[in-house]
Design a protein that fits this description.
By secondary structure, the protein is an alpha+beta fold. It is built from 3 helices and 3 strands; from the N terminus they run H-E-E-E-H-H. The longest helix has 23 residues. The radius of gyration is 14 Å and the shape is globular. The C terminus is likely disordered. This is DUF3806 domain-containing protein.
Length: 84
């Protein structure tokens, strides 16, 4: 849902710790690791509010996109606000 809403692509991201599935903005270096977010939340023992998680992640990623566009001089694009 988050990838669809923001126009992100599913990728395999690799670093010194290994590889994991991530969602990535198609032209900016903005990544998120949805599986890891949920695993970390579960490990805390707290109940997961999926609506809160969804809106928080979308908001944080939109902010990262805007910040990177401002710093890189990338023109802003209009994105659909339809939920997916």
């Amino acid at each position: 849902m988050i990838a669809t809403r923001l126009g992100f692509e599913w990728v395999v991201a690799t670093d010194e710790q290994g590889s994991d599935f991530a969602i990535k903005h198609p032209s900016l270096m903005v990544l998120a690791f949805p599986r890891d977010m949920i695993v970390k939340w579960v490990e805390t023992g707290e109940a997961i509010n999926m609506t809160e998680l969804y809106h928080g992640v979308v908001s944080a990623l939109e902010e990262q996109i805007t910040d990177q566009e401002i710093h890189d001089g990338t023109p802003k694009r209009t994105r659909s606000r339809a939920t997916g």
